[in-house]
């Protein structure tokens, strides 16, 4: 997961897209045009399965639609806070964690299911960003305590 403050830019010319450059993620040679699918948020606005596109200078950029800019009240030159993670369904699928929680605590599973999908994915990313199974287990146990007390 990357978390950055970036400045909105705009491509030159009529109809030029607004975007932010996204350092730290490289294009995927196995996808159409090297696009990379990510999810996350921009100033708290959830992003689901958006495409980062290569600019040609080695950087990927995240296009920011007018609808999103309007909701977050930002335009060219404004700074935005982004959280992005690669949208790898196997790891980021909330159903996987939901089923783990369901085996342990119905209340925790229910409260997890009621969270916004982007919040669910933030939690999943935090748990699985460390490949050590002991750390993952500890984080899941901490999550269960939080979910059972509704402190998430």
UniProtKB/TrEMBL annotation:
The organism of origin for this protein: Flammeovirga yaeyamensis
InterPro entries documented for this protein: AF2212/PG0164-like_sf (IPR037079), DUF1905 (IPR015018)
Name this protein carries in UniProt: DUF1905 domain-containing protein
Pfam families attached to this UniProt entry: DUF1905, OmdA
